[in-house]
Amino acid sequence: MIDRSFIGQSFEPLTVDVEKGRLLAFAKATGATDPIYTDEAAAQAAGYAALPAPPTFLFTLDLERADPFYFINLMKIDLARVLHGEQKFTYGTPICAGDRITLTSRVTDIYDKKGGAMEFVTVDTSATNQHGQDVGGMTRTIVVRTPQ
């Protein structure tokens, strides 16, 4: 059983610089074909300061931590039992190339279903840019299959 005392725990904030090359690679990998994601002139003509981040890019920034499984390992959850449950995003001021983004994550819930056969951990992450503006956030839920 996952220790419920982790509910409410916040983690060390992470600050990441958003590089143009990463945005281009992410746009290509996710099939983002709108020219605003690959052409600086098109992005600026659309009102962006630089190339904007395609939707869901925020998740990749959290993977920049020294341990991308930081909360799973801290909770001593067996990674082999983890499944992706759900992920939701909110959007604020657009993230653009050249921004410096700070992510702050917190465990918001731990619960079980099916008589304890599955446990769920929900982590909320908020993000701000170098100007203190809200650029969005994400909520992710992992499912942990408990040993039978």
Describe this structure in words.
- The chain has 148 residues and is of the alpha+beta class.
- It has one domain: Hotdog Thioesterase (Thiol Ester Dehydrase, Chain A, Roll), CATH 3.10.129.10.
- It has four helices and five strands; from the N terminus they run βααααββββ.
- It has a five-stranded antiparallel sheet with strand order 1-3-4-5-2.
Question: What can be said about this structure in brief?
Answer:
With 148 residues, the chain is α+β, with helices and mostly antiparallel strands. The chain has four helices and five strands, in the order βααααββββ. The longest helix has 11 residues, at 20-30.
Question: What are the salient characteristics of this protein?
Answer:
single chain; 148 residues; alpha+beta; Thiol Ester Dehydrase, Chain A; 5-stranded antiparallel β-sheet; 4 helices; 5 strands; elongated
